[in-house]
Amino acid sequence: MFRHKLLVSFGLVAVVAGSIAAMPASAADSRMIPSSGSATFQSGPEGVDGLSQPEFASSGEEGAQPYSGTIVDRSASQGGSNGASASNGPKSKSKPELKTSFDGLNHRQQRLANGGNQFSVEPPDQGLCVGNGFVMESVNDVLAVYDHTGTTLIGPVDLNTFYGYPAAIVRATRTTPAVFGPLVTDPSCYFDRPTQRWFQVVLTLDTHPTNGHLTGKNHLDIAVSQTSNPTGLWTIYRVPVQDDGSDGTPNDGCSLGPCIGDYPHIGADANGFYVTTNEYSFFGPEFHGAQVYAFSKAALASNATSVAVTQFDTHGLVAGNSGFTLWPASTPGNAYEIGAGGTEYFMSSNAADDAHGDGTKPGPGTSSQLLVWALSNTQSLNTASPSLTLSHTILAVGEYAIPPKSDQKSGNFPLGQCINDTTMSTPLGLGCWRVLVGSEPAHTEVESHLDSNDTRMQQVVFANGKLWGALDTALTVSGANKAGIEWFIVKPSISDTGVSGTVALQGYLGLADNNLTYPAIAVNPSGRGVMAFTVTGANHFPSAGYAGIDALIGVGDVSIAAEGVGPDDGFTSYKAFVGNPPRTRWGDYGAAVADGLNIWIASEYIGQACTLAQYADFTSFPANFGSCDATRTTLGNWDTRISELSVR
């Protein structure tokens, strides 16, 4: 465990809520969703190394533009300096101790699952849920179940198979054409202790089986375990979210037809299970607004033959703008909000383009506002006619802004170096690049800078009567603009008129010469927590980091659960594959969850490294090429790390 001094602010702030806006149940859409059969874990054979065509399902996304100004961590800065001082503030009373740490799923397992009938995928999008001695991890596009020591109990299982779909891709042979399955993405999972059920959610995009083209139809696939054991049977519900008036959806008027329910995330209170999405036009340019889907948790947990869903559209609700990434809260144990007939909380931010107008024009890129949302009267989800109210309020917080991309410690990046090579002898001629691409590239690839997210809200927890959350931000650390974290602890209040609240504590977390990205907070019922994140920069290859957090002092020292051993070296890093400029996909989110008094965390990191000579293995070409002794694939080397910490 490698420890550092950290740079964070610790000011206790009491900020009175702004105006309250409410959306009554009459403005929501309700419909019934039938179950779609059952699912179980069916592990298939592992595929073989080497490139197969096609490797990619679709092109990457355009990233947000980073902030060029200065956001200083004032808690540790001195005088008129633009950077934060290295002197420490008070220590968090939450003192996590690392108990267990093991590698989770990685790119190699993802790509070779289901006999290799998978695409190469970046980033992993990490989901984690823990309970009853089981640890379940879900990433793009595989999942697995472990025991508490890290021993694999079942998996990896590809998500297409788990949800009952054809394989993502069965590649063509000399006698048979290629067959394409749906694209399954953005996984999340949750263990609900009161009902003893496991929940697993993905977004699925339907495709034409003959060519893989997207049809526009897309749905949230919700799997609910039939027992308290996640390795058994599950019941599947498929919720259409194209919102063009088809398949029972409302018509939200997205340009060019269907909408897409992107970036789904999940939460729960005593009465309901909730999924939120960011709704965009599927084929057009605009953002429509975050959607909230509310289900009776009891109905889902009973594996009912059909369940009701109530959908709220946040389009135009924030002074004419729309909600963006409303992350629903989960609650450790059963200390739910019971006010106003039961309430589920959410938090969101509003610096991104998407939170202004239709998202097609540049937004401010910065904000000093935190939005708290509440869905009240959730007890009515257990009736034949749910009557819910969605309200929100705006709190003043420290400034946050789009972070810069994250640099990495210098090391070997054999995929990029292979693209650059023109002299190596290969079975296809001179130049390693010939094995990777059909036409000669520019040979100018460099070690990449990782995507540091935008400023959207990350994981939210309601614990000990407070809301806890964090987001990625630009942060000036020792005079340099780096990727850092702003965290919030909010005391919410709910009444018949809507939600209000105060900021109990807030601050920044940064590390000199390095970057901290994709935070995820979990808090145990006693109010002691851990924040997980990736650490990368001049001193670290991408590593799995964490810090303690509590509502009295704030955040503690940065610690390393697993030190990265090499740079990220995936296909999204290089112009030869994704165009210029490349966007190195990382994240898009980590995870953290309380299990009793202990906290489990999951972060992306790099757990392998090799040289170009090891990568370019032609001894049994193409079988071993790019695998570096079965530690990666030709096109990617991301890994995930799962750790358990005791918190006292």
Structure commentary:
It is a single chain. A ten-stranded mixed β-sheet has the order 1-28-27-26-25-19-20-21-22-2, with no helix packed on it. A nine-stranded antiparallel β-sheet has the order 11-12-13-14-3-18-17-16-15. A four-stranded antiparallel β-sheet has the order 4-35-34-33. 60% of the residues are buried. The two termini are 18 Å apart. The protein has one domain. The protein has 648 residues and is mostly beta strands. It has six helices and 35 strands. The protein is globular, with a radius of gyration of 23 Å.
The fraction of residues assigned to DSSP E strands is 35-45%
Q: Mind describing the biggest β-sheet? A: 10 strands, mixed
Task: Give the neighbour order of strands across the main sheet.
Answer: 1-28-27-26-25-19-20-21-22-2
Domains, number: 1
Low-confidence stretches: 1-19, 72-89
How large, in whole angstroms, is the Cα Rg?
23 Å
Counted beta strands: 35
Q: How helical, in percent, are the residues? A: under 10%
Alpha-beta classification = mainly beta
- Whole-number mean pLDDT: 92
Form type: globular
The rounded distance between the terminal residues' Cα atoms is 18 Å
Number of helices: 6
